[in-house]
Specification:
Two copies of one chain form a homodimer. Chain A is about 40% helix and about 15% strand. Chain A is an alpha/beta fold and about 350 residues long. In chain A, the strands form three sheets. In chain A, strands 2-1-3-4-5-11 form a six-stranded parallel β-sheet, sandwiched between helices. Chains A and B meet through helix 4, helix 5 and strand 2 of A and helix 4, helix 5 and strand 2 of B. Chain A binds a DNA duplex (30 and 30 nucleotides) through helix 2 and helix 4.
Chain lengths: ~350, ~350
DNA sequence: CTGTCGACCTAATGCGGATTAGGGAGATGT
DNA sequence: ACATCTCCCTAATCCGCATTAGGTCGACAG
C-alpha cells in the first residue's frame, strides 16, 4: 500500500505510457524537456492534469540535495523576555529576505533544553538547515567553536570577533554611532558629559564605550566613565555630579537596560528632569524606550536582511564576500537632550 | 562526491564497523534497539557523537513520514504590517509549546513572488513539516480546500467554519467576550449603546456583532449597529448620536482598525472626550491600542500554545481530540468607559 | 554429535523524484 | 545493404533513512 494517497510521477507515467524519468523531465525540467517530442509532452501534461498531480517537495529536495532551509537560532533565552520585541525587527528583515532568496526559515528553540549546556544539543540540530543565522548578545564560545569546525555556513547578527575571520557577522557600528551622539551633545554646548555603563563586558558594550571616548576625544573633551550595577545610582550621587558641572549623561543600552532604568529612577527621586536639569542620551535605540530619548537608530531590519544575503552567498560557495559587515546607525535626536542651562 | 558534507548514517556505520540499518535502529529506534548488544550501541553512539551526526529531516520524512517539524504559515502578507506586533504573542506561545513538545518550528513565508495565487506555492511547501499551523484573518478558501484534501494535519489559529469539522482551529470566543463588554457598559448604566463595525464579513466580525447583539438582548436593550468604511464618520454624525441619547459607543477591532480610528478622529474634531462625553469600548484587545481603552484580552499566547498541542495530537493520530476550541477572553475594563453623565 | 532456539545483525527494498549514461528506431548517406 | 547519425526515451542509480525479511553463529537440549 502506498503511504500517500496522492498521485506520483509513476502514476502519470503509467497513464501516459511513458517512463517515470520522462515525466520528471517534462514536469520538472525547463530546458531539459527541449529534447522531448511535443506529442509526448502533451500526453504527460494531460495525464498529470487529470490526476491532479503535485510534486512532493520532500522527495524533490532529497533528490536535489539541498533543502532550502535557513536556520535561525537565538541565544539569550529567546522570545518571552521583556526586551524581546527588540528582536522583532531583525525577524522581519530576516523573513523578508529569506523569502526573497527562495528559502524557508527554520527556527530552533533553546528553551526546552534544560541541560547544563543548553545550547549544545540545539547547535547540533542546527545542521539540519543549509546554513544558520545566530542572534543574541552573548555568544557561547565553546559551542560556537565546535560548530565553526564543521562546514556549515553560519552568520552571526551582532559583532563578535572572538573567532576572527572564521565567524562571519553583520554588526552595527556602535563606535561611530556612539561618537555621533557625543558630537550631538557637544554641539548643543555640553562639555562635561558622563557615561554610565554596566559592568558587562560584551563586545557591544566595549564598542559603545570606545565610541563615547572617541567622540569625546574628537571634541577635545575629557571622557568620564562610570560603571554601575544599577543599585549604586542614588539621587545624592546624581546631584553631586550636577554640582560638579556635569550637564549631560549618556547611558548604555543593554538587553536589561539596568543602568538606564536605575538612572531614570534616581533622577525621578532626585527631582531632576530631562532636559531641564540634565540632558540625557543613550547609546542605543530610542525606539525600544519611552518616547523622546536621544540615541541612534540601529537598522535592525536591514541587518537581518543583510545577514540573510551573506548567508545565502556563503551557502552558494561564494568565497569572496566580505565576511564582516558593520552597518551605520543614524543619530536620533530626541527631546531629552537640549543645550545646557 | 557527496552533495552534502554532512555525515550520514553510512559514515557512522563505516566508523563503527556495522551496517547502516543497524545505525538507523540504534539512533532512531526507541524500542527497536532493544535487541541490539550494548557494546554495539555504544560504538555507534560514540561514532555518531564524534561525527556530529544529525539526521536529515528530508530523508527522514521521505522514509518515515515524519521529521519533528511544525510548520507555521501566516496569511495576510506576513509581518511587516503595522498591526504585525499583534501576531507576536501568538508566536511566543507557539514557540514555547513547540519546544516543549520536542518539535522545531518551520516558518513558511508567502514568497515575495506576487503570482496570481500567492499562496498556492507555499501551501505546497508546507508539506515539508509534519503538520502546519495557520494564522491570519482572511483564509484563502480554495487553497485551504486543496490542502485539507491531503492528509497533512493542520490547525488554524482563529475561528473558521468554512470547512466545518474538516478544518480544526483554536479560536477566541468573541461572542461571549462581546456580550461581556456590553454587560459591563450596561452595568455602568448605559442604555443606548451603538456598535460601529466595518463592512468586512470575516467570521470574527460576524462573531463580534453576534456578541454585541447577544449582550444587548440579555440586558433587555435594543441593539443598534452602524456600518462604516471609516470615511463617513463625521463629527456632526457623532453629535447627532449623542443628541439622540447614545451614551456609549462600541467599535470593532480589526487588523486595520479603520472604523475605530475614524471614530477617534471624528470625536476629536467634534470636541467629544471619552469617557466624559461618551463612553467608549472596543470588541478587541486594548493592548494593541493606546492605553486605557475598555475591551477584552485575547489570550494570544495561550491560543498559540493550545494550537500547537492540538496539532501535535493530530499528528500523533489522535482522533478523539476536539478539533474546535474557543478560548475565553477576560474583560479588560479601561478608563474610556464610565457611568453616563 | 546433531537439531533447535535465540540473540544480533545485515541484505534488500521502498519513499518520490532528479540525473546520467546509453540504447533502440528510424533517417540519411554511400 | 551497411555504417552513421539523430532523435527520443528509458534503465539504472542516487539522495538518506526506515523497515522487514531473513541469515549467521553460538549455546544448549536431546
Amino acid at each position: 500500500m502506498r503511504p500517500s494517497g496522492r498521485p506520483r510521477q509513476a502514476d502519470i507515467a503509467r497513464l501516459a505510457g511513458v517512463s517515470q524519468p520522462t515525466v520528471s523531465l517534462i514536469l520538472g525540467g525547463t530546458a531539459a524537456a527541449l529534447g522531448i517530442a511535443e506529442e509526448t509532452q502533451r500526453k504527460v501534461m494531460e495525464a498529470a492534469e487529470r490526476l491532479g498531480y503535485m510534486p512532493d517537495p520532500i522527495a524533490t529536495r532529497l533528490a536535489a540535495g539541498q533543502n532550502n532551509l535557513l536556520g535561525l537560532y537565538t541565544f539569550t533565552s529567546t522570545f518571552p523576555t521583556e526586551m524581546s520585541h527588540a528582536y522583532y525587527p531583525f525577524l522581519v528583515g530576516i523573513e523578508e529576505e529569506t523569502a526573497a532568496q527562495g528559502y524557508d526559515l527554520l527556527m530552533f528553540i533553546a528553551s526546552s533544553v534544560t541541560g547544563e549546556r543548553p545550547h549544545a544539543q540545539v547547535l547540533n540540530r542546527v545542521r539540519l538547515a543549509d546554513g544558520c543565522l545566530f542572534l543574541g548578545r552573548h555568544l557561547p564560545v565553546p559551542e560556537m567553536g565546535r560548530l565553526l569546525a564543521t562546514d556549515l555556513p553560519v552568520v552571526y547578527i551582532g559583532r563578535h570577533d572572538e573567532f576572527g575571520d572564521r565567524l562571519p557577522y553583520i554588526g552595527a557600528d556602535y563606535v561611530s554611532a556612539g561618537a555621533a551622539v557625543v558630537r550631538h551633545l557637544a554641539g548643543l554646548g555640553h562639555e562635561r558629559i558622563l557615561y554610565v555603563r554596566e559592568a558587562d563586558e560584551a563586545i557591544t558594550s566595549i564598542d559603545r564605550e570606545a565610541g563615547f571616548r572617541g567622540g569625546m576625544d574628537e571634541c577635545g573633551l575629557a571622557a568620564v566613565v562610570v560603571r554601575t550595577d544599577g543599585t549604586d545610582l542614588t539621587p545624592d550621587r546624581l546631584r553631586a555630579w550636577r554640582d560638579q558641572g556635569v550637564t549631560a549623561v549618556v547611558t548604555e543600552a543593554t538587553d536589561t537596560d539596568a543602568a538606564h532604568r536605575a538612572l531614570l529612577a534616581a533622577a525621578e527621586r532626585a527631582g531632576l528632569r530631562f532636559p531641564d536639569d540634565l540632558s540625557l542620551a543613550t547609546l542605543g535605540d530610542p525606539r525600544d524606550r519611552p518616547k523622546g530619548l536621544t540615541g541612534f537608530a540601529v537598522p535592525r531590519r536591514e541587518m537581518g536582511a543583510a545577514a540573510v544575503r551573506l548567508l545565502t552567498k556563503l551557502i552558494a560557495g561564494d568565497r569572496t564576500v566580505p565576511r564582516h559587515q558593520l552597518m551605520t546607525c543614524e543619530l536620533e535626536p530626541g527631546e531629552t537632550a537640549a543645550p545646557p542651562r
